[in-house]
């Protein structure tokens, strides 16, 4: 695969990941749709598009993945939606991706992976940045919403760790989305009294599921074939920046000094940790 194509696919994937934050925030702020319904429509439409893509590629009907991974996927999607009721797009993306990377780096440390002084320093810097971002203050994000997004990030980190060794990542993702449907339908049924449907909100949810999630993951897995592990981890640091820019452009959100400082600490710390890895390591 040529370098321009790899760059294009990677850019599209990062735009899709940031698009998830923008679409969710748009739906929950600009329309009356409730978070549970948004989550269900996102996961169901994602399962449908991923299933169709798998079939178009001529793969078998065998459902891969696992119920444990599907539960982690559901917790991520639900926490993501409920957190964005009050969080700005860039703030949510920063908390999400910060929690994801800290979870994955922390897991490596917990399981005995030997970390260099640079990696340990990066991990501590990122953790301090995350804690500092959440300290009480005029521009601090809502604590409950922040906790939900951090939980979503931890769940996505667990989901990512469980899928690292998948031989068929696309089929695995399709299977996990399908298995997540009963969980999300149960959530919607348990909150049926708060259900609120609007055409615009439903369209945002379907776009988040089918386009920025389903197609976005497909593009990302295609790009991953030609990216090292370090490159793949590094480029994802761009997502909170893109989401923050999208929030300013499309949602009129403000760029606060706290967000700038926290972003520098969190993303800088994560970069220190992941850039220490071997540049030849394959994904």
UniProtKB/TrEMBL annotation:
Residues 9-133, 148-274 form the EamA domain. The chain crosses the membrane at residues 35-53, 65-85, 91-110, 122-139, 145-161, 198-220, 232-251, 257-275. The keyword Membrane applies. It is found in: Membrane. Its main location: membrane. One of its GO terms (cellular component) is membrane. Keywords: Membrane, Transmembrane, Transmembrane helix. It is a multi-pass membrane protein. Belongs to the EamA transporter family. This is Conserved hypothetical membrane protein. It comes from Acaryochloris marina (strain MBIC 11017).
